[in-house]
Amino acid sequence: MKLPSLKIGKFTASFPLIQGGMSIRVSTSALAAPVADCGGIGVIGGSGLPPEELHEDITKAKKNTDGVVAVNIMYAMKDFYNLVISSIDAGIDMIITGAGFSRDIFKIGREHNTPIVMIVSSAPLAKLAEKLGASAVIVEAKEAGGHLGTDKPLREIFPPIRDVIKKIPLIAAGGITNGYEMAEMMDKYGADGVQIASRFILSEECDIADEYKQAYLNAKKEDIVLTSSPVGLPGRALNNPFVKAMNEGADVSTKKCPHLCLKKCDHHYCINERLMLARNGNIKDGLIFSGENTYKMNSILSVAEIFRQFKKQAEEVYREGCGFSPAV
């Protein structure tokens, strides 16, 4: 059975899939535009970028696709509001945010007619986001890569959030690697769509070093671990020499912060710097965020082929769940 489209605010994605926004300079216009072309929602990772660079990349993405393009900006960023306004000025379709909770962002969204999508891991936060004016909510569980707001699995935290969110779309995120799992979340659990990030690292269009992608391909289940982050949340990453040393108590601190990018930072290392090292191919000293199920993926595919496979697999088993259906 054909999967339903995903309507968020005034925008409709013909295929209910959001590509996760991966910072820093991992999910750029080079990835977001092809995702949007395939009918999903392409997402630029806006955290840690200068506002001018983000503005330029959003403009580039909008020129290269007629599809839906969003930006993900962590509330933990010191220049959060500058990045939000820069994104709106560049013509972004919607803003996705998490790693903290902003009430003011909903007012900005209303003023500029820009849908706000909130990433949460609990029913109370989801309910508050809907009350304040979120256009959709993403439920992100422990299986996700990067910063985590919970230690509980997706299939445990999703149902109670589904119970309280009735008026806006609810998206499932964390550990989804194929179309069968996508259909399960939509059919059995009532998700209106899914967000997927790690699978798009292993895409031809993802503009990162080959060494980064090879680290994903080489990863075994035991190589994907939890670690600490200056953001104040635990993170899920590959257990490379840097992460191993940090988890064993070695001093990996930054003597002088080169970026001053976070509102609150414990400075035990510079996350911006470590993410850029990985993005540029230094897989020994960089921070390689990874979803819990990265080890299940063994090929680099084009974005179009990823969508083709997800669509084929999902529609083989989808039987129409209990998700939100917007009024026509």
TrEMBL record:
Annotated CDD domains: NPD_like
Pfam families in UniProt: NMO
Coiled-coil positions: none
GO molecular function: dioxygenase activity; nitronate monooxygenase activity
Keyword terms of this UniProt record: Dioxygenase, Flavoprotein, FMN, Oxidoreductase
UniProt keyword Transmembrane present: no
Descriptive protein name: 2-nitropropane dioxygenase
Species, as recorded: Desulfomarina profundi
